[in-house]
Amino acid sequence: MEEDQQTNPRSSQICQRVILFPLPYQGHLTPMFRLAYILHTQGFKITIIHPQQFSPNQSNYPHFTFKSISDGFSDIQSYMPEQPDASFFINYLNNNCINSFRDCLAELLADHNEPPVACLITDAEYYLAQDVANSLKVPRLVFWPCTIVAVLVYRDLSFFYDKGYFNLTRKDPEFETRVPKYPALKIKDIVKIATNPKDLGEFQTNVVKQIKASSGIIWNSFIQPEEPILENLRQDFSVPIFTLGPLQMYFPASISNLLEQDRSFFSWLDAQAPKSVIYVSFGSIARISQSEFQEVAHGLANTGFPFLWVVRPGMVKGSEWLEWLPENFLEKVAGKGRIVKWCPQDEVLAHPATGCFWTHSGWNSTLESICIGVPMICSPCVVGQPIVARYVCDVWKIGILLENGLERMSIERAIKRVMLDKEGEGMRQRISRLKEEVTISFKEGGSSHMSLKSLIYYISSLQFL
Ligand code: UDP
Prior knowledge:
CATH architecture of the largest domain: 3-Layer(aba) Sandwich
Shape: globular
CATH class of the largest domain: Alpha Beta
Strand order of the largest sheet: 3-2-1-4-5-8-9
Distance between the termini: 31 Å
Number of strands: 15
Bound molecules: uridine-5'-diphosphate
Number of helices: 19
Structural class: alpha/beta
Low-confidence stretches: 1-11
Helix content: 40-55%
Strand content: 5-15%
């Protein structure tokens, strides 16, 4: 308490509001709602602005105030591409919500019946929010939900594009070589980031420019594994940086789920041997082809290990749900494998029966695995995932990367390496050490603990521009 008062003069009587504007994607919403809870426990009143179409279940958050803004989604059908990817919607939101966002923010700032606004925190990808914040003279902090190195790589995407990386194919010898500027990464990792690299490069250039113009960056990460990269970042981004993750250490429970959670498999999971189950999930956005889906199914069935597989409706391109499973698959794996649409991932990872996490290497999933100490098999799809997978497998050595995509023989081999081989034992030891580092970073004086204190102090003493 005494120390709190030293670092935060207003800790006992903060009476300010923080306005958050999260991006309505699961991997962005979950950590940002966790951040909102943390700020709330530190004494701030929380207001969440959200696009009308993506309304969170407000009864889950009785302490927060919500403001819905119009997003024009009812008109979107006329020019939506056949297979829209996440960046289509993010661009759409940036361009179509901006006026209603400005009006909403202006109204909130003018409301003198509420405590004064300390700052605005938006997802980094709402880059147009910086101009709005500047025009209304409110400090904007950005929340970055991925690994630290991703922002540097995104900053350089246009450079990689000009260098011709995205024209390279598997047959080019360069494809497998390391990126000179980021020796942890291979050129093929960069190629995998974007299906439309020119557009993504331009979009990320805007995002990075507005991060640099912001009043600070909040990172869902902890320092230890990313320390060398953080130094690199500090040389180019002169704004304050707060590394207070992994945020699930504060609120481990799954919150803000956009899909309904299935819990019916828990009695089956409880009956499995310790560390015997492969948990498979490719997150909330990644999509795979029908043939990749079949390879996953064969790979899982062939190893003989029990498995719990999350198949999100729409995850398999051109299908509703399980239509493309190999013939008689469900009969073949009856009792051995379960398939669900969505589950409480944090509880599954923490379950004693879970032995390995086969993931698409989303940043939240990766942090959740580290916090619990479960080694990974990585099959990244797009954006930050290939970067995260490379760090998990080659730098931190806590997982195995399916280098050549989804193919049943490689899947079977990777599962056996993690579950049965000495190599898997080594990964378990290294991830346990990393988990210990997380615990240390949250103790008094640890990096995440100190970072949270400085963030609270910083927010409560920010001046309007
Ligand atoms: N998740 C979940 N249930 C599932 C699958 C995923 O609760 O069945 C959660 C997972 O715990 C994580 C988030 O969804 O917090 C996915 O975020 P991530 O950054 O890993 O991937 P993204 O969905 O953004 O690609």
